[in-house]
Specification:
Helix content is 25%, strand content 30%. It has six helices and 14 strands. Strand 13 and strand 14 form a beta hairpin. The N and C termini lie far apart (42 Å). The chain has a single domain, classed as 4-Layer Sandwich (Metallo-beta-lactamase, Chain A). The longest helix has 14 residues. The protein is of the alpha/beta class. The strands form two sheets. The chain has an eight-stranded mixed β-sheet with strand order 1-2-3-4-5-6-7-8. A six-stranded mixed β-sheet has the order 9-10-11-12-13-14, with no helix packed on it.
Length: 237
């Protein structure tokens, strides 16, 4: 296991406009990046992550802002002297899938679950080249990471990604930031099933060191999970 994980995130690269593309460091091989879209006239953040390996970089979700598809690749190559070789999107909404076809066209291997592809085809969202039908373990340059489908929640198809070496959980939009005051976009959500899905997640990965969320700030341990449960209870009331 990686000996020391920096739990306090800090910005390492910011675009000139400061609301286009922002990077934060978790440790020497795990980074977060954030892109933005306007919501009610204000920049609204969408978080993603990436893993740096010897043979290249793996993206977990794509930028939301299409103007940042190429700048993301350029920034990663400039900072790490490596190219992006793989991208996995965690559900079908365009804040996570918008760049899939662009990256496929750049020779990057793109993946979603089979369920995500089915929903994306139905809704006209971007498609990955490859799919997986069940929870899957990937190994890139000796780095092992796995996908897990806990059940319905934010969307019918939401998956999470676990990197066991770092006890890092990338929850995407399935998990809410402690900064969120509500559950956000619920058009495709299943609040009735979400709580049980969260319990399955906690059973599967009982000790995350850091948990990243789809929007706003992530937190140590299970804070985003507990906050999502709290928001679900409030929604019920």
């Amino acid at each position: 296991m990686f000996a020391i994980i920096v739990l306090v995130l800090w910005p390492v690269i910011t675009s000139a406009q400061n609301t286009k593309l922002k990077f934060e460091k978790i440790n020497d091989h795990l980074y977060l990046y954030t892109t933005y879209q306007l919501f009610s006239g204000n920049p609204f953040p969408s978080n993603s992550a990436y893993l740096v390996t010897i043979d290249g970089v793996v993206l977990f979700d794509t930028p939301w802002d299409e103007t940042q598809f190429q700048p993301l690749l350029d920034s990663i190559e400039k900072r790490h002297h490596k190219k992006v070789v793989m991208c996995i999107a965690t559900h079908s909404h365009d804040d996570k899938t918008a760049g899939l076809e662009y990256y496929s066209g750049k020779g990057i291997a793109t993946y979603t679950s089979k369920y995500t592809k089915e929903i994306s085809v139905k809704n006209g969202n971007k498609l990955a080249q490859h799919t997986f039908a069940k929870d899957t373990v990937f190994n890139v340059s000796g780095y092992r990471f796995e996908t897990f489908y806990p059940g319905e929640g934010h969307s019918p198809d939401n998956i999470v990604i676990w990197i066991g070496k770092d006890d890092f959980l990338y929850g995407g939009c399935f998990l809410k930031s402690v900064e969120n005051n509500d559950l956000g976009y619920l058009k495709d959500a299943n609040p009735a099933a979400w709580k049980e899905s969260l319990k399955k997640l906690m059973k599967k990965y009982p000790k995350p060191v850091y948990t990243e969320v789809g929007h706003f700030k992530g937190s140590k341990g299970w804070k985003p999970v507990m906050h999502t449960l709290k928001l679900l209870d409030r929604e019920k009331d």
